[in-house]
Design goal:
five-stranded antiparallel β-sheet, five-stranded mixed β-sheet, about 220 residues, 6 helices, alpha+beta
Length: about 220
């Protein structure tokens, strides 16, 4: 990919990332002036942060020398050859991938950035999947499954990640996992006896509260 095309693709990706809640470092707004034939399009140096995760896009050793850990920027590493982006957490690279050229295709065609959103989905899946899996480990102090009832909502917290059979059965019953509450929830009464049939798990009803909206989960 030509460096100008890469710059435009990176800026297009940055715009979409910012709309998805990422904090961008090294962003420059479009300063072009058609009245004076001055061309200075929007650009981004390829570093973003969200929830303690660092994303580097098309970042080179030059970017690292110039900005890594300086002037309020987070520390980051150069993206390896053959990759167009990488994810870092606590100074360690946890994932890397390709797909930046697809962002340019969206930019050039003026499409509804389908490929850009798909790429961000992949990036966020790689960035936050470990945290989501760790969330399954929120547990009762006694290491038991904890079930809480809030009006017509039921919440289930596990001492460790439930096995695939349990997850699939909960999904079939309408269960969903909440990253904010770190537990599974059901919006209608369900029979969860299969979760506790082989254990001495307890069920605790919490004080009634307001029904949560999806945005509060």
């Amino acid at each position: 990919m030509h460096w100008i095309d890469k710059q435009r693709a990176t800026a297009a990706l940055g715009t979409a990332l910012r709309e998805r809640g990422w904090k961008l470092y090294g962003w420059k707004d479009d300063q072009s002036d058609p009245l004076t034939d001055y061309f200075s399009p929007e650009s981004w140096q390829g570093v973003a942060e969200k929830s303690g995760v660092i994303l580097a896009v098309a970042v080179t050793p030059y970017h690292v020398r110039a900005w890594s850990g300086k002037n309020g920027w987070p520390a980051f590493h150069a993206v390896p050859k053959g990759k167009s982006w990488q994810i870092e957490r606590e100074g360690k690279v946890i994932a890397a991938g390709i797909g930046l050229s697809q962002c340019f295709d969206d930019y050039r065609s003026g499409s509804a950035d389908h490929d850009i959103q798909a790429l961000i989905d992949r990036i966020e899946a790689a960035a936050f999947k470990p945290a989501r899996e760790a969330a399954h480990r929120r547990a009762d102090p006694n290491g038991e499954i904890r079930i809480e009832v809030e009006r017509d909502w039921t919440w289930v917290y596990f001492p460790s990640k439930p096995d695939e059979a349990a997850r699939e059965r909960m999904k079939a019953l309408g269960g969903r996992f909440s990253g904010k509450r770190l537990g599974w929830y059901f919006t209608k009464p369900v029979d969860l006896s299969f979760l506790t049939a082989s254990s001495t798990d307890s069920q605790t009803a919490s004080p009634p509260g307001n029904r949560l909206s999806p945005g509060e989960r």
